[in-house]
Amino acid sequence: MYSTTLLFLSFLSTAFAFQVTRPSLTQGWTNNGPQTVTWDRVSTDATNFTIVLTNTNRQLLSSDVVLASLVDAVSANSMTVNPPSGGWPTPGGSYRVNLVRSPTETTTIYAQSTEFNITAGAATTTIASTSTGTSRAGTATGTTGTSGTTAAAGAGSASGSSDGAATTGDVFSNNNNGAAALPFSAGLLAAAGAFIGATLL
Questions:
Q1: How far apart are CA 91 and CA 84, in angstroms?
Q2: How far apart are CA 168 and CA 182, in angstroms?
């Protein structure tokens, strides 16, 4: 009778104490990025705990790792834990999460998850975007009006625009001077012809 009572009390303490619901055998972790821990509790359970990752296979995990300290167990029933400073351990099986009293009292275990696997997660690739700038050099266009004024339009270097405008103006200026000289040459030829004709007569 006494042994039956002890067994019943042990069953009650197991049924109504902390329980780790994730990770589990069917919901394991990957070794990439933050991972999730979820639990159930009752009002008689402790108000906080520390999360420890452990593995009986010391070739995969040489020592237990504290993932989060003094977690508030009342206001939530899940939390995200970040990778340890050295990253997640080697992918494999037989991992467990323990909810313990404190970082210095890891042997006082409130609850323990079932064994679960840590698998290799997809690597995250960061693509650096680069911006390519296209610069366009402007061209200087020279135009001459009736007054012979040269205008330079467009964007570009100051020296290039000035040189282009000056060259264009010179060409048109020379053309204008040539056009003005033509009537003078024609008049001179006509006078010389008239003089020669009078002499012959």
A1: 14
A2: 22
Q: Residue 80's beta-bridge partner residues?
A: 36
pLDDT value at residue 153: 41
Q: What are the residue ranges of helices labelled H in the chain? A: 2-15, 158-200
Gap between the Cα atoms of 146 and 42, Å rounded: 99
Q: Is the N-terminal amide bond of 83 cis, ω within 30° of 0?
A: no
Q: Is the pLDDT of residue 98 over 80?
A: yes
150 in Cβ contact with 168 (< 8 Å):
yes
- Token pair of 91, please? 């992918």
**pLDDT average, residue stretch 14-26:** 86
Residue 81 identity: V
Classify residue 195 as left (phi > 0), alpha (psi -120 to 50) or beta.
alpha
Name residues whose C-beta falls within 8 Å of residue 200's C-beta, 6 or more positions apart in sequence.
none
Per-residue model confidence as pLDDT tens digits over 45-84 = 999 999 999 999 999 999 999 999 999 999 999 999 999 9
CA–CA dist 109, 98 (Å, integer): 7
Question: How much is the pTM?
Answer: 0.56
Residues 6+ apart with CB under 8 A from 167: 142
